[in-house]
């Protein structure tokens, strides 16, 4: 799509320039290509929901290192901050409470997709992270590492907030 856009745009710029010379048209063509390449890189960095097959980092001491989302328990598109997911453990510590291959529940505590706040600001994180919980919503681990947003209070995950080191 972007390549077609670049080729059409460069043809238009050459036809508009007519006989003004090759140097000006080639400089415009290269500037068009850099604009298109920056546009493509922005599309690739677009943040999305946590959906099926998303790999998340586990930020508690339950024994798991990485989990893969199987299903979001809320919306059709996927999970956001504070939502509960069903996940499969992909990497685990050898002597932890949770073993590799186990199906667990988790609460999303950090998401790369931005979420708007009431005051007009937006919160987003560099990574996707989850805290493992049991069926009742109580955390499996006893510590939560890294920042946790205060939006979890609205979603009734107060126990996770009390275990967290830093509330963002």
Automatic annotation (TrEMBL):
Record keywords, A-Z: Ribonucleoprotein, Ribosomal protein, RNA-binding, rRNA-binding
InterPro entries on file: Ribosomal_uL14, Ribosomal_uL14_bac-type, Ribosomal_uL14_CS, Ribosomal_uL14_sf
A Gene Ontology cellular-component term: mitochondrial large ribosomal subunit
Biological processes annotated in GO: translation
Annotated GO MF terms: large ribosomal subunit rRNA binding; structural constituent of ribosome
CDD domains per the UniProt record, alphabetical: Ribosomal_uL14
Keyword flag Lyase: no
NCBIfam families according to UniProt: rplN_bact
Family stated for the protein in its record: Belongs to the universal ribosomal protein uL14 family.
Protein name per its UniProtKB record: 50S ribosomal protein HLP, mitochondrial isoform X1
Biological source species: Cucumis melo (Muskmelon)
Gene name per UniProt: LOC103484354
